[in-house]
Amino acid sequence: xxxxxxxxWWSTILGENEEFDQGCLxxxxxxxxxxxxxxxxxxxxxxxxxxxxxxxxxAGDEVQPEDLLLEVQLQEPILQVEVGKFVSGTxxxxxxxxxxxxxxxxxxxxxxxxxxxxxxxxxxxxxEHNLQRTACNMVYGPFGxxxxxxxxxxxxxxxxxxxxxxxxxxxxxxxxxxxLPGPLAYSSRTDSFITxxxxxxxxxxxxxxxxxxxxxxxxxEAEQQKHSSGKRLVVDWVLNIGEQALDICVxxxxxxFSSVFVLGERNFFCLKDNGQIRFMKKxxxxxxxxxxxxxxxxxxxxxxxxNHSKMLNIYQNVTxxxxxxxPHIPVAVKVANLQDLKGVIVTLSDNGQLxxxxxxxxxxxxxxxxxxxxxxxxxxxxxxxxxxxxIIREATRTQDILPKSEKHKDLIVTAExxxxxxxxxxxxxxxxxxxxxxxVTVKITIQSRVAVQKPSLVVCVRAPLAxxxxxxxxxxxxxxSSETVVLSAFLKGNCSPSDxxxxxxVSYNMPTGKLLEISRITKVAQCKFRLPLLLVCSxxxxxxxxxxxxxxxxxxxxxxxxxxxxxxVDLSQDDQANVLGFQFLMGSKTTLLASKTSQRxxxxxxxxxxxxxxxxxxxxxxxxxxxxxxxxEFACTFSGSIPLQEYFELIDQHFELRVNAExxxxxxxxxxxxxxxxxxxxxxxxxxxxxxxxxxxxxxxEGTFREV
Length: 708
Fold this sequence. Notes:
There is one protein chain. The chain contains seven helices and 42 strands. The protein folds into four domains: about 5-215 and about 235-360, YVTN repeat-like/Quinoprotein amine dehydrogenase (Methylamine Dehydrogenase, Chain H); about 410-535, Immunoglobulins (Immunoglobulin-like, Sandwich); about 535-640, 2-Layer Sandwich (TATA-Binding Protein), CATH 3.30.310; about 650-705. By secondary structure, it is an alpha+beta fold. The longest helix is centred in the C-terminal third of the chain and has 42 residues, at about 645-685. Helix 6 (about 645-685) packs antiparallel against helix 7. The termini are far apart. Helix content is about 15%, strand content about 40%. The chain is globular, with a radius of gyration of 32 Å.
């Protein structure tokens, strides 16, 4: 390995087709262990939370099962993970997980294990906050100078800073002149929040100013307060840096001063805590992440900066001290203390490559053996051989404490999707406004090679798809036995799904031989299945005109659409080799065309959101076709302009509908209260009169309310 490559100490790849970003990585002693060693906490946009404690036998070893302390899938994408003193009444560390509309705080604890697999870790939800606004990022610290606890500040996508005093919500304030959210940091020395606005300037807001500013429930009220007599939110200091910022970090290694580090698109800034520039460095590359850390030289600070060329540069103030090559582009970087090894560099890529590395070179430990001219003592060799054979026999007798390692898996789960749709639909509670909502049968088989205890099956499909039953619990399975369940999948929501894939997860306990009465090992087996496209759409005549079009370029001659989509052959239609129509159950229609002269395919529809599913199905079927032809060089590309304007309009429309629905719900609730009040007054006033008109009026009011 070259001198200028990062030395791999430990690495792994997280999940499959998962995405990660800047806030998805954290290192801390999250389980409050006595060793005070850091653990690596990683959250993904697919909702997976993982905690690692790497301990390779030698540098570069592959990941071991015991390195993964915890893996759990939460219900929502994870935007950011942080560790701090978030629970009142204790100064222990807890884990804060930020979702789009929820903030959850967990306690991570370990249960002593009885086998060599080690301790078992679990998380316990301490409290959660449901957010009224969509979150972007968060920061924590001793806001207001509190002692022994950390408060949390969340920045929403529309510019509100929401502050939480642990289990309770404190207040929310809108940032003035807000357009798009930027990075956010907290300086404990000045008790200030620091961010970079869309005006490309660094702004600092005092916590006390935020706390005493006039409250506002929405952006319009915040703008009106600028012209009112109430106390408005004012900025403490501003510095124009002339570019967007990727990240902000506040560093304070002593009580005399602190520094604010800002990583821009082309420059790296170090500011004093009053906003004055301490120094800056122009970068000749595109940075991706950074982290400052302490330096051994007084008055200087070291900084790690990763870039899109897979390089990690180490600066001491503005001087480049080292440059090292990484195997991936880092989106997050941390410095951790792992297994008594201080200063381990932890990097994470956007596709889940997690690596712990160090700088420098390994020392040469090879020494030439000394020449031994003495004669061999065969009696000593025989005695040593007998001792070693005795140790081997002892190890052979006790190896049945744990199950013997097998080349094949202990339990296998398979899913088979029947080729034809159900003759009689099994769809239940579907919101689709169609004459018939089809369903398809999925047969799931569990085969066990060994004895397993308490197997449970969970079946997951992407919303708005659903299954007739998603959970199954089985009795204990004997060796070489199997269980089979049958369920049906269908379209439940009135919109097109983003994916037709499904997942099966089976969790089970493995007995550990002689320790059967006291010990079990929990394992998980999983598999994937793919639902047919006919589940959400049917063949239809193609449309000649459409509002939205997407052109896919390939490097191979076009394939007949009858070959790619044999399940959508309609004998009543002509020229189906080059054009096909798809009628979605929701009513919209999409058309697919294959060029006769070029290597292109076009997907068009009047609804932008309907382009995706047909486009994805097309690329998947093309890849499968050329894979069967043993062609490994096939590729699909898109050279057109991305329809961002239409995409943003679709998002705006979605949120407008959501806001209108919430407003209608509020009006309905108020109207219901008014109706009930009218009923009570009339019944009280005319209770001694003829009851027939009152009953009629009561029925009329009830019917009107139900109608609304």
